[in-house]
Amino acid sequence: MFTFLHAADIHLDSPLRGLEGYADAPVAQLRQATRRAFDNLIDLAIEEQVAFVLLSGDLYDGDWKDYNTGLYFIDRISRLRKENIRVFLASGNHDAASQISKALRLPDNVHHFSTKQPETKLLEDLGVAVHGQGYHTRALAENIARNYPQALPHYLNIGLLHTSLTGRQGHEPYAPCSLDDLKAKGYDYWALGHVHMREEVSQSPWIVFPGNIQGRHIHEAGPKGATLVRVEEGRIAAVEHRDLDVLRWYLCRVDLTNCATMDLVLDAVRQAMEAEQANAEGRPLAIRLQLVGTSPLHAELYRDSAALTEEFRGLAAGLGELWLEKVQFATQRPVALAADLGEETPMAELVRAIDRLDFAPTALMELVPEIGVLQSKLPPELLHEGGLVSNDPPSQANGLREKIKEMLLARLLGQGGSR
Fold first, then answer.
1. Fewest 10 Å CB contacts: which of 149, 227, 306, 333?
2. Domain final position from 315, 334, 353
């Protein structure tokens, strides 16, 4: 019986994004998060006395600024060497041979798989065959899995591969392959990398994306870590996730449907933050707050969004070790505007005029020639995920412009005494 550890997408020294613009941001924790998570990986390997560690690509985050990133990795891997723990590494798109200009000799407990063709390493003492290939170039478009050898008889066969499979949202389609391509090799376990969300693609055989070990922004939310695998009598007996992250990201949705006053809104937000904090098991949190529901306070929420955002930041600061990355106001009106205002009233006509405004970039430039100056003065919340006249995807830009319309309507209706 033995165990091994499967991790991927370490992205050493990659910056965490989304909090750097705030004065109270945990700067030191942001800078060191990926290293501290990797320290946790090393500690876990030693504590569990694993036989070997698999690193399925994107150990680095592109070319090193200096040698410190490589020196750090060698230092930590040397801890595993002292414990007789072997390491198998396959380069991914971020640390492809074409991406890394510097090089350091790795300790002799590390095998770095070839980037030219698949190769096999035999661990005779364990009856294990590890097959793998790294990336020679970042944008690897070929199906390299097809060239992997068939499973060796009388061995536990493991495939190490950095791939998008048939495609995963938010990830480039590198080294594409199908589930059938992998199953056809007859391996017992495929140790995949590239996709940053944990996924057990198959259990017969085991085909696993462990996810990255540290979330770096709000789109990498939730627990992050590695996969611990136990082998008994030459077969996979257990596969389990282990958390390694040191700062966690959450999308915190709060339904305000039943909140009739701002005090109730603040209470609901506080309770939601406290619940996320309890789930984080003592880790610092970075939260994106999303306010949803059919709310009687819809107009007030949009009208006072800037002041309320600061209120919510204050709640987060009061809880300690919790930072608010952004607040998204996404509530709905309880009553349609037409029914609320009537069809033939001056206020209704003003509302219709605002609703007809064209917020396309070209129209805005004609409407406000100084739009560039205006954009530079907009609050960070409106610029963080794409500017008003940016070249962002249409759905994202349209969503931003709809929020601006809602803010205009909220201010107008607030002054007119209607919601």
1. 306
2. 334
Q: Residue type for 378, please?
A: L
How does pLDDT run across 347-370, given as a tens digit for each residue? Answer: 556 556 655 655 555 555 555 455
Same domain, yes or no, for 119 and 170?
Answer: yes
DSSP string computed for 337-361: HHHHH-SSSHHHHHHHHHHT---SH
- For the four alpha carbons of 279, 280, 282 and 285, in that order, the dihedral sign comes to negative
CB 282 within 8 A of CB 319: no
- Give me the domain span that covers residue 358: 344-405+412-419
Residue 54 belongs to some domain of the structure = yes
45 phi, psi to nearest 5 deg? -60, -40
What is the pTM (predicted TM-score) of this model?
0.82
Q: Residues for the chain: how many in total?
A: 419
Among candidate residues 301, 305, 315, the one with its CA nearest the CA of residue 273: 315
Cis peptide before 205 (omega within 30 of 0): yes
Q: Are residues 279 and 229 in the same domain?
A: no
d(CA 392, CA 385): 9
Domain total of the chain: 3
CA 109-112-114 angle, to 5 degrees, is 150
- Reported as a single tens digit per residue, the pLDDT across 47-58 is 999 999 999 999
Residue 198 domain flag: yes
Query: Is there a single domain that holds both residue 155 and residue 265?
Result: no
Whether 357 and 305 share a structural domain? no
Amino acid identity, residue 116? K
Give the model's pLDDT for residue 186: 97
- CB-CB contact of 323 with 253 (8 Å): no
Domain boundary among 226, 243, 260: 243
64 and 189 in a single domain? The answer is yes
> Which CA distances in Å does 405 have to 154, 357, 359?
66, 8, 9
HSE of 148, CA atoms in CB hemisphere, 13 A = 33
- Enumerate long-range contacts of 98-101, CB under 8 Å, 24 or more apart: 98/136, 98/137, 98/138, 99/60, 99/62, 99/63, 99/138, 100/60, 100/62, 100/63, 100/64, 101/63
